[in-house]
Amino acid sequence: MPTFCAPDGTRLAYRTTGEGDPLVCIPGGPTDARYLGDLGGLSRHRRLILLDLRGTGRSAVPEDTASYRCDRLVDDVEALREHLGLARIDLLAHSAGANIALGYAARYPDALGKLALIGPGTRAVGIEITGGTRLELARLRKDEPWFPAAFAALEAVSAGTGSDWDALAPFFCGRWDGAAREHHAAGLPVNREAVAHFGADGAFTPPATRAALASFAAPVLLLTGEFDLNSPPRSTAELAGLFPDATLSVQPGAGHYPWVDDAGRFARAVSAFLG
Questions:
Q1: With 97 labelled, which of 59, 68, 167, 206 sits at a CA distance of 20 to 30 A?
Q2: What residue ranges define each of the domains in the chain, with the CATH number in brackets?
């Protein structure tokens, strides 16, 4: 697996799959990029460069735990661009990784070609997703056989009286079928220290980021699932409104992992945007 040095000397790893023009991919979590797979066959259209965030996967654990902060991770992406020798990169980010990508767009706008945000997190721009919004979206699944137990767990989590996150898994998938169960069972390898520091004080400066994105000229795709509790369509649409050139796509029947729910539809939408 190839590696490169971050600005603070931490050695970071990435893997490549597919052919064609490169597409740098940032996972959520923060975690390593294994769960992205080949993004539903997107690797048939682009050469995916999948970054393991520091302290995860094959990337080294940094000496300074403060470097897990989201704003610090932005410079790891820039170091990867320089390592690849690319004047500009197309960038795809999923979930919490979108916060890193938003910071990158704000700090290095001239280094970006196109930006695809998948099921994007919104902390970097201060868009709050309330428990009420998630419960409202969850009720769309009321006819599913797993709904009663999962919804009870969601109500408890929303009220701060429960923490059975595993019971919520069906809500993050468009279909709670064999493929979804297999993807969930594989899990997201979590570095709890990285998670704890990701949103530490100073990690996000929403007013400054919003101001920078208002003049971001590159095309942006914001794709979320119809049932995505992590990144509801309403919140993703609000994020889209911060960009001058944004395309909002809500994938029907999908949850937080749209490339698992309908690989073909997902790959076609993203590859059409990237060109």
A1: 167
A2: 3-126+186-274 (3.40.50.1820), 131-172 (no CATH)
